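Inputs:
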Amino acid sequence: GAGVSQSPSNKVTEKGKDVELRCDPISGHTALYWYRQSLGQGLEFLIYFQGNSAPDKSGLPSDRFSAERTGGSVSTLTIQRTQQEDSAVYLCASSLDTGSYNEQFFGPGTRLTVL
Amino acid sequence: AQKITQTQPGMFVQEKEAVTLDCTYDTSDPSYGLFWYKQPSSGEMIFLIYQGSYDQQNATEGRYSLNFQKARKSANLVISASQLGDSAMYFCAMREGRGGNKLVFGAGTILRVKS
């Protein structure tokens, strides 16, 4: 069956440009998460969606970062006026619900490089 | 304060031997879940094993087992009969019951299996 997919797999952009990263969760998964992994680091939570709403945006590092989810499915993470410190792998995960055992299935990630 | 601590940046193990990867956590929430993920060089995050805070028994999944010591707040991963394919980065993560559904990750441990 189809897992979580993300596009593009790699994105190189110039400082100051806007980028959009896409996540397509597993069909039927109501919860969707964005994480960021900087070089050699663990994963840092960015934002969580339940359906189309985002009850937890606490991890977004600045107002240059925003995300939306439409139709309870696909999500887009937008970074405006990219900076070099935004360079990282952006990982998306989805899960069935928010119950006590809530295995998150991860996508392959988008590697963002800001020159 | 660090919520998840993995004190071993890197570990070596001989093929077919067992290895323990350490993880300690910090939470005041009585309801939480602990997860281990494997990240091979391909970058994909692979779920390995889950332990709930109220689970009476230590979790096991094939060659993976979790040595859960609640009073010490530790959740060490034990891999038995190591294989070359086990070489990867391993992350311990925690989900707090009332802290939303995000996962908080440790810094990871790189495991190298020697033949």
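The radius of gyration of chain A is 13 Å. Flag for discussion at group meeting.
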